Amino acid sequence: MSVVLIKPNAKKKQYGNVISLSAIEPPVWLALYANQIPGARVVDMEAENLGPEELVPRLQAESAERAIIFATGSHPSAHIQQTEVAEGLKARVEQSLHIPVEVFTYLPFRPNEAGAVNWNLLPVERYRAHNWHAWGRPDKFYGATFSSVSCPFSCEFCCIKDFYRSEYAQREPRLVEADIRALLGRGVTNFKMMDELFAINNKGTRAVLELLSAGGLGETINIWAYARIDTVNAELLRELRRAGVRWLAYGIESGNEEIRRG
């Protein structure tokens, strides 16, 4: 059976008038999931800038007999914008092609156990870094990888573990390096580290940093990653920088109790 995995195009809905400043991120989860389905292919509607009316002809061209739509983006918050779009695509495809379509708003597999990303399934040349991320860089090409899934913390207001359907788990550091080296070979130097919390002093993060620092790789690449203000110190920041992590996005929650309750 010919299976096609679909990333919806919710770009305009998410970013509105600043769409040109935002990134076009590779759907790493789709590419990893496709590895588990023999012969599966990926249609990235966002990267190909496909509208809803263009999906059915695209699936016909792929001889699709079954479709799977990930309304997940690369972060749990993305499903808020993408679920409605994904359900609309499902109805359109089922009505036009009469093939089964499944929509996932969570990860139906364990990415940390899925091996390296098969970048041949994705249009690598179409991905674009955030405007701020690529300031002063010779290229705007964009890649992504991850060293862990879920989160080591258990904040009561957070939905992250529902999205991953798992507790915190780390990936083999060599697979992180393999992802980056594979994309470097295609001219990509800007990367997102997709971990919910990468900048933390633990064995897995340090192993990744050591691999990326070796041989000067960290001076070539430009990574941004998520952090917390209570998980970094001066020593870890220096190690991150040597490994090519030039940007950290800190999650600083509101001090207003009313906002937290909302």
Task: Explain how this protein is built.
With 262 residues, the chain is an alpha/beta fold. The protein is 32% helix and 16% strand. The chain is globular and about 55 Å long.
Terminal Cα separation, in Å? Answer: 45 Å
Which percent band covers the strand fraction?
15-25%
| Structural classification | alpha/beta
If you average the pLDDT, what whole number results?
A: 90
Write a brief structural summary.
The chain is of the alpha/beta class and 262 residues long. It is 32% helix and 16% strand.
Properties at a glance:
262 residues, alpha/beta, single chain
How would you summarize the topology of this molecule?
Elements: E1 3-7, H1 11-15, H2 28-34, E2 41-44, H3 52-61, E3 66-70, H4 78-97, E4 101-104, E5 142-145, E6 148-149, H5 160-164, E7 169-170, H6 173-184, E8 190-193, H7 203-213, E9 222-227, H8 234-242, E10 245-250, H9 257-261
Parallel strand pairs: 1-2, 1-3, 3-4, 5-8, 8-9, 9-10
Antiparallel strand pairs: 6-7
Helix pairs in contact: 3-4, 6-7
